[in-house]
Structures are given as structure tokens and as C-alpha cells.
Request: fold
Amino acid sequence: MSELQTIESALSGVARRRRWAAALRGLWIGLLTGALISLFVDGVYHLSPLPFWTRTAAALAPFPCSLAGLILGGWRRLGMAEAARWVDGREHLKERLSTALEVASQPTAGAWRDLVIADAARHAGQLDPRRIVPFGLPGKVARWALVALALGAGLGFVPEYRTQRFLQSQTDRQLIREAGRQLADLSRRTLQARQPALEPRAEKALETLSDLGDRLNKATLTRGDALKDIANVSERLKDELRDLAKDPVLNRLEQAARSSGAGDSQSAAGLQKQIDSLQKQLGAPTGNPQALEKLSKDLDKLRQAAKGLDDKNSPAGQQQRNDISKALSALSRQAQEMGLQMPHLNDAINALDANQTELFLKDLQASVTDLDKLNDMAKTLQQLQQQMDKLGKDLAEQLKNGQPEAAQKTLEKMASQLTAANLPPGTLQNIAAEVAKAVGPAGHYGSLAGLLGKAGKQLAASDKAGASRSLSDAAKELERLAQQMGDAQSIAAELQALNQVAAAIASGKEWRPGNRPGRSGLGEGGGTGGGVGTWADENAEWNGQWSDHWDNTGFDRDDQDARGHTDRGEGDLSAALKPSKVRGQFSPGNPMPSVTLRNVSIKGQSKLDYEAAAATAQSDAQSALTHEQVPRAYQGAVREYFDDLKK
Amino acid sequence: METQQAIESFRDTYAALRAEIGTVIVGHDAIVEGVLIALFAHGHVLLEGVPGLGKTLLVRTLSEVLDLSFNRIQFTPDLMPADILGTNIVMEAAGGRRQFEFQQGPVFAHLLLADEINRATPKTQSALLEAMQEHQVTAGGQLRKLAEPFFVMATQNPIDQEGTYPLPEAQLDRFFFKLLVGYPSGPELAEVLSRTTAGERPNIRKILTGQTLCELMNLVREVPVASHVQDYAVRLVLATHPKPETAAPIASQHLRFGSSPRGGQTLMLAGKVRALIEGRFNVSFDDIQAVAPSALRHRLILNFEAEAEGIATDQIITQILNDVPRDAQTVNA
Reply:
């Protein structure tokens, strides 16, 4: 290795280490910069409500900053001449190396060149790059970077300062977003489930609801803005409904559907199937539900009497047993006469005869339970039979009762019969008679009467093919009307949902669409707990069943009674919790009194009729009572209040 | 290797000169070094100091160690230029014919001691201008070359203000170094007393001939200088110029005029000599810094403000050396 190469080798080693040292220093400076940025942003975040992503970005800032510092620090390559000057200065080599490199490129330097290079090489040979450029922590920078990082980490445990107003607005925003998301999902599901048969206007109205949901979900709205938007869309939907209500055909259909209840919701075949199934389960009971209920009450009385039986060896006790045995035998006979199979009752009689009181009571309880079940089934059977009775028997009755789906099926059946090759004799006349009879009731169904009239004429002229087409057209017309009716119902349902959303947002409560049992309507935060205190299951739902007994199964304490189900008696609320009636000052035609909700003031004229509002509220309350969504202690008060309202 | 031998010869000669001068002159190492640097750089020296510090003795000793012709001029207010340069006088030839013949003045010597140079009038002082710069004199319409090497060693007393004439800037600039001779330390003074009050004056050996000196002066000029070291000298000189773009802040505030290019030349040549003295083959920043005060102090002209505040040029030079970075491309660790 020549002397010049010795110099260059030593200098390149130093230059390389210098580059790495600069890169490491850059890394620490970057870390310090990132840590300071992080600390600053986190500090600001703790004092003022920046978006949460800024905190995440601030927490991550030291990493890219360190990387950038490393790259920037190591980016610059140190040249040989520069390294020579630096080493000269650092090692006090009196510019030997830099001069040597310079004269090395000057061949005219002659003997001086050799002397200078030899002198420099002698010094370069003693250079140790690791000693000259040690890798270590850059004192102050590293110290401050670590301090800044520690402060940033510590700041993470300090709770943020937020004003009550901000927290409220955040909660509102979250509620609005969640409500918007649910609303958008609901309206999209509705649109996907059945495409609207009405004009594009109706579809557009439903799409507007979906857009509103998206807007509530994505845009940052205040409570007031959200309520305004909801009110606007609500007005549009009401206008749509009002326009639909002007259609006499739909109006008629709606009235018919309302008066017939759920009669059209199930077909006659479906109802018959359910009736057959229940009758099979019941056997062949001849008694009605009232008789079964009476039987059940009698049995329950006997059970209560049996609880207080005297000692079996005493004459009074023997007498009581005989009385109960006789009464039971009579009830058993009565049950057999009603066609009921009650094996537990016979077992109870046998147990009583054998003086096995415990077994007797148990069998008697089982008999009461069986009887209650039979009673429920009998009631259901009775309701189904009533529904069956309401179903129209022919086309005219179906149209008259407002059962378009049943009428549509009848018409389709007629049309298919007319196209059959071997039409049974007399069938044509029967169809013609039924169609002729239905022309009158069909007058409420728009062009249906015309189509039926045309079919009647074609039947009279024995034009079976033409009559079949006319009847098919009539069936299609009915289908279209049914779809329009469904659209109107969809809009009404959406409107109802929208009103619920508005009420939820205005009162600062969560809203979920009522598509899940126990979770419908408004809810305060999470769902109803399935337990107590910290053991509460936030995701549990109330199953709608109230028990008469208090479940002490999990208790095992000396200061408490035995475990098991115990009767908690009648609900008795404290005076503070007892509901009280608040009579409103509403009167038809007058302005509504202003209702001030938390942070929201809604004033203005009510466009809803008082009677309609009261009826809707009463219907909702009745529904809640029926589904046992009202606590037992409140049921009486709620019923009484809404009955008053109805009056 | 001839160059290496010449360099070793230079060092030996320098060491011998120091040793020989040291037998007479006690202490004043920096002054002796400065004088020798100027000698090898072929420059003139202005020695300034109060009387009795050995300025004249130093020059006389130098003349004795050098195998060169030596003349001494005692400058007085009535000294005329012709007294320095020489003059044409009427001479009678062998045939009785009379003719003007030039009678050389004391300037015609290798080493000229201009003692108390500031006592002569500016007119007389100016007689040395041409001799110092161009090593020639013009007298009687004729140009006469001086013998090489030619050195002027001048002394002046800074405290005697009566009957003195400050040297003009043009003449000051022609001095390679201005060396300030200070008081000796206690041990040095004791040694001076011992040597001068007991026994005889030691015999001085001739160390260096004129021809060898010329060879060594040529050797000095061959010493390589790195470009960034030369750039440092340039920046130092420019920093003394009271111009906003290059001047150091203190120069702008306190200087009326800065160093001439001769200042830069002095820095380079003196640096080269110092490098050889130190045993190096190249000039370093330290060399430049070491010679800067001697090279620049007489070339900076203070303004009224600086003179009123009593600021010395040495203070300004020290500040400039602090302000001007050694390497313009300094790489910080």
C-alpha cells in the first residue's frame, strides 16, 4: 500500500464513520423533534378538542421524524478533502493530510510532494477512526429527547380537559350519527326488500330518507341542525302521505284493512293449517276457553285448600280429605266430559287417597299448569277461528272486506280454470255468477270494476280466453293496488321512524329501529341489563317475561333466607317513584304549548290533529302493555292515563 | 534527496543562529525568532521598544553571525537623504582632470541598521523607500543596485514624542515585521546583568554566508501551502479592510485602512519559514496565526475613534483572528 493509499484509506474510514455518526445524530435530533411535536400536540389536545386522529398522529410522530433525521443526517457523503480537513483540525495535524491530498494531485510539486505525503502518511497510519469518531448518545439531544418522550407518555395518563358543553355536543353528535346510520340502513333495507310500485316520487321520498340518514351519519351536525333536517324530510314524507291519502282507492283499501284487522295477513289455507294443528294438540275438547278457565280456577282453589290440610289422623283432616277427593273426582269427570286428558289430576286423586300430601300438591300444581296451557291454546284456536270467519268466502266478500290478496288469488284461480281444457260443467256459470256479484264491491277499486264487468260480458258470450285475460288483468290491477298500499305503509313506517329519531335526538337518547324484540324504540344508552350492579350484562336483553318470584338461586349468605324462588309479592313502589298523571293543556285547533327539551327549544304550530296524536299514543301504549314492555307496577297507571286521554 | 538535505540544513542553520545569538541576547525568544523569520523570508524588520532593551544589540549580533556587510545609521533630525544613499562628489583623476564620482552611502550594505529611524524627517525616511522595496537606489540620475541579500533592521522608540516623526504608511508597509520588544523577565534580567557586568563580551562565530542565506531564502519559497490555508490568509487580510462585505465587525468600527497585499505576502512567507522551523513541510493555520500580529500590526491604520479609546492594533488583530474561521468549509463534528 502506497503512502497516498494509506492516507486515503484512513480518511475513507473516518469519512464513513462520520457519516454514520451524523446519521445517528440526525436520528436523535429527529426523535427530539418528533417528541416535541408529539408533546405539543398532545398538550393542545388535552386543552382543546382537536380531532382524535391528531393525537394518534402525534404519538406516532417521533418514528417518522427519527427516520427522516437518520436519512437526512446520513444523506451527505463526506468527501476525501473535507474529511482530511476535519481530521487535521480534530487531531491537530497542522493541515498535513489536507495539504498532502492537495499536492498529491500536483505532479509538478516534485520532491516536496513526496516529503509532504510521507509526513502525512506517517501521521495517518496512527489514526484510529473509532477513536476519532466514537458512536455514542449525543448528550443534550438524547437527554432532552428522552425527557420529551417521558413527558409525552406521562401526559397520556392525564385526563383531558373538556367543557360540559363540548361533552354534550360530542354525545349529541354520536347519537345523531348512530341514529343516522340506523335510519339509512333501515330505509335501504326497506327499499331493497320491496321496490316501490308507485311513481318515482314515492321512491325518491324514500331515498331522501336514506340520504338524510347518510347526512346525519357523516356530516358534523349540531342537535338543532339535525332536528331541522329531520323536520324538513318529515314534512316531505307527510306531503307524500297526504297526496297518497287523496287517492280514493288506496283510502278505501286502507280503511278496509284497518277494519278487518290482520285478516288479510294470512291466507285461508294458512289459517286452516294452524287451526288443524292446534285442534290436533288439544285433542277434541268440547269446552270453550271460559269453561277451561273456570276449571282451572276450581283446581287452584282446591290446591289452596289442600295447602292448609289438618293432620291426616285427626277426624277433621280426614273429613277435609274426603271433601277434596270428592271435588277432585267431580272435576275429573267434568274434564273427561270436555274431552280433556289430565293424567296428573288422576295421580293427584290417587296421592290424596294414599295420604301423600306433598305428592298430591305437586300433581295438582302440574294439573293446573296443564290446564292453563290448554286454556291458552284454546284461546288461540278461538282467535284463529274468528279470523277464519272474517275471511271472505267468495270474490265479492273478499273485495267487500278489503282483502285484496285473497281476491287476487281468487281471480288468478278463476283465470287458470277458464284456460283449462276440460272445464267441469257448470263451472263457467258459477264463475260468471261470482264475477257478476263482485262487480259492485269492485267499484271501490278503481278500474277493477270495469275489468270484472268486461270479464262478465265475455263469460256471458262464452269467450273463455278473453274472460281469462280480463280476470288476469284484474288480478294484476289488484296486485298493483296492494303494492301501492304497501308503499304507503312503508312511507308511514318511515315517517314514524323519523319521528322517533327526532324525539330521540331531541331528548338526547339512543334510537334503534324496532326490529328486535326488547330493543325497539328509545333506550337509555346500552340495553336493559340482565343482572345487577357490576355483574350487569350490558348486551343482555329483557325477554319480556315477568316472573312472580324473586330469584335467589345465587345467594348463599347467613343473614339471608334460603335460596330459591320466592314470592316477592305485589309491586309496591315508593311515593317518589309512583307515576302521576299530568294533564295536558291541549285543545284541538289551538297552538301547542312550547316544549322545552334539554338544550333544544322547539316552538311553533302543531300540524298534527290532537285526536290523531292521542290515538297514536294510545295505540302505542296499548301495544307496549300487550307486549308486557311496561313494568307491572306501572301498567295500571299507564292504562288509566291513556284511557282518560281517549275519553 | 537534495530538498530534504536542504531542509535539514535550514533547520541546522536556524538552530545554530539561535544558539549563537543566544550567547549574547538573553531572552526575547519571540523577537529573535521574528527577526530570523524575516531574515529567511527576505524581509525588513522594525523593532519598537523603549531604550535599553537590546534592540540595537540584537541587530549588531545578527550582523556578526551573518557573514554579510553591515552598516549602521543613527537617524537624527538633521540627517539628509544623501547621508543615507550617497552623493556625487568632485574627484580629481590621475591626469588632473576633475570629475563627479558617486560616493556610496551606508545603505550599500547587506545589513543596514536604521537606529531610531523615527528621529529623522519624513524626507530622509523616504530615502529608504526605493531601497527597501526594489533593492536599488537612484542617485544623480543613476540607478544603482544594492547587494543581495539586503535587509533593513530599524529600531524606534515609542515614548519619545518630542523631535520624532512617525513613519509614513508607505514606509511602514515595507517592513516585513514590526516586532515589539518588551521588558525581560526577572531571571532574564539577572542573566543580562551577569553577562554584561562581568567578564568580556563573548566572541561571535559567523554562521551563515550570504550565498547560503540566499539558497535558504529560495528554499523557503518552495514550501507548499494548501489552498484552504492560503484562503485563510486572504480572508484575514480582507477582514482588516473596513468594507462591510469582508471586514470583521471590529475592523469596520476601529480601522481607517486595512492591510495591503504585502500583509498577505508576509503571512504566507512567514508561515512557510515557521513551518520549516517547526519541522514541517507544509504551512498550517497555526503558522499563519502565529505570525499575523507581527505581520499586520503596522499595516492597520486606526481611526480617530480607536485612537481616542486607546485601542491598539494588536487587540484588533486578536479579535479578527477569533472572528475569522480557520476553514471556510468547517465540518462540525
Remarks:
- Chain B is about 45% helix and 15% strand.
